[in-house]
Amino acid sequence: MARALAPSRKPAEAFSQWQWRGKNARGELQKGVLVASSREEARAQLINQGIIIKQLQKKRASFGLGQRVTGAHIALFSRQLATMIRSGIPLLQSLNAIGESATNTSLRHMISQMHQDVSEGKSFAQALEAHPKHIDDLFVHLVAAGEQAGALDTMLERIASYKEKLQALTSKVKKALYYPAAVISVGLGVTALLLIKVVPQFETMFNGFGADLPAFTQMTLALSEMAQTYWWWVLIAAALTVMGIKTGVKRSPRFAFGCSRFALALPILGPILEKSAIARFARTLATSFSAGVPLIDALDTAAGACGSQVFERGIRAMQEDVVNGQTLNFAMRNTGLFSGMALQMVAIGEEAGSLDAMLNKVADFFEQDVENRVDTLTSLLEPLIIVVLGVMVGGLVLSMYLPIFEMGNAM
């Protein structure tokens, strides 16, 4: 689907929040926050609303906290806009109302720019297209189709549902990744604190015993000495490793692909990431295809939304196969990335002319599979993590008290 490119304009950072106090036409004290690119523009907005300005100043940024526009923000924006348009409120008024109620500064800026673009005569799809960092091609495709068909509210509802399901899936995957990492990090931190701060106190006491210490205690004291000497080297190495991986993923497609392939090969997390990528692919393709987006363009959108470099490369290869006249089912089979169940359902959908419905069923199945796997992983990890932390911390404590127990037995 061909789309007109939006012309360049001021970046979102040119807008700021302005706090104001003043009186309305009835002399009542009023205060609030508005978004404008300059003090003059903010003053003009207030004067147009009949406000006698007493104070107007730029709102200070809160050190960048809460300023990132997330998928959850976009989903809520779509849902709110669909509800207001369905209620008969014009698009410009809807954008203005949602922008004023938004608490996220970056989202306010983005909606303000959209409002300005639409008021200047651009279509809503063109206004959205000026924000590729937050608005993907699927969003623009569906809004353009909704504007042409006079069903913008329906398309926005569809976008909101799609974004909400995608966010729910993403949160499940993050739970599978972050929960064990957070607990293990806390355990390592407590262990390091004991080795660096607590064990040296016992070592001072042991020096006055004048007897050989148990091997377990000697090993703990050796670990404590290493931790005291090299702890900052470990922190630097960990930070450099994380930064190096992030930089490599951003700058090197080959490295990013290798990391993605390694993640999919992990014994427990790998299947969760794989099922998640299939679910995202199926959901995105179903939403695009049902809105009338050509299959080739829909595959392009799905490739960017699957969240895996391995699957993205496979979907790009599928595009070429489909362009060459192969069916979607056959193209999916050639990649070797999709399960037999997914291939069968897509084949049935192609034969019955209900590909979008079958793809939605595939997405529902794999989303449920991801949820079940994450719940199972969490329930299994909890006792395992407790045992590991107990052994780590309990072992340290026991090694420190062994010499005391031996002295008690000798006496």
Report on this structure.
The chain has 411 residues and is mainly alpha-helical. The protein is 73% helix and 6% strand. A 3-stranded antiparallel beta sheet has the order 2-1-3. Helix 2 (71-86) packs antiparallel against helix 7 (152-206), helix 7 (152-206) runs antiparallel to helix 8 and helix 13 (328-335) runs antiparallel to helix 14. The longest helix has 56 residues, at 355-410. The protein is flat and about 90 Å long. Residues 77-200, 281-403 form the Type II secretion system protein GspF domain. It is found in: Cell inner membrane. The chain crosses the membrane at residues 176-196, 230-248, 384-405.
Helix-strand blueprint:
Layout: E1 16-23, E2 29-36, H1 39-48, E3 52-58, H2 71-86, H3 91-101, H4 105-119, H5 124-129, H6 137-149, H7 152-206, H8 215-251, H9 253-264, H10 269-290, H11 295-305, H12 309-323, H13 328-335, H14 340-352, H15 355-410
Antiparallel strand pairs: 1-2, 1-3
Helix pairs in contact: 2-3, 2-7, 3-4, 6-7, 7-8, 7-10, 7-15, 8-9, 8-15, 10-11, 10-15, 11-12, 12-13, 13-14, 14-15
- What share of the residues lie within helices? over 70%
How much of the polypeptide forms β-strand, as a percent range?
A: 5-15%
Rough outline? flat
- Strand order, biggest sheet? 2-1-3
Structural class: mainly alpha
Poorly predicted regions: 1-14, 61-66
Distance linking N and C termini? 89 Å
The H-and-E topology, N to C, reads as EEHEHHHHHHHHHHHHHH
Radius of gyration: 29 Å
Total of DSSP H or I helical runs spanning 4+ residues = 15
